[in-house]
Amino acid sequence: xxxxxxxxxxxxxxxxxxxxxxxxxxxxxxxxxxxxxxxxxxxxxxxxxxxxxxxxxxxxxxxxxxxxxxxxxxxxxxxxxxxxxxxxxxxxxxxxxxxxxxxxxxxxxxxxxxxxxxxxxxxxxxxxxxxxxxxxxxxxxxxxxxxxxxxxxxxxxxxxxxxxxxxxxxxxxxxxx
Length: 177
Prior knowledge:
Layout: H1 2-11, E1 18-23, H2 27-36, E2 42-52, E3 55-64, E4 74-82, H3 86-97, E5 102-110, E6 123-124, H4 135-145, H5 149-162, H6 166-176
Parallel strand pairs: 1-2, 1-4, 4-5, 5-6
Antiparallel strand pairs: 2-3
Helix pairs in contact: 1-2, 4-5, 4-6
């Protein structure tokens, strides 16, 4: 998926000076895109929006600012998904205030209700997406949210049916419970 995205970025002849990953979800895609499109300048910002699974706060909050100057630079903001688009909108506004010359956005997925349409994305979905780098975190949240074992097992079974490897889920659950 990221190879395809890198190719789209290169086909548009967009070469950012800096890639900014939104942590936590955009950290790994940002690092990989940094390598694939040969943009070594990589930084992160942290935006908090979700309290729990499918539970956003009223507004996204910038928790950690960038550690490098973006003034006069072309920026590629990277996140895993544009769900509501509000985190991306906040990131864009913040980077404009910091003097970024041009800002483009890349995500792996976009949801139809997103108020921010990334310049580069791979797939549109209405489904809940669990990325490989957040499987254990997701399982931990499910087991905490659904305290009754039956409800948690039902939710986890949905994830396995959607494609999460059953043996991986079982192994990770051993460390959680």
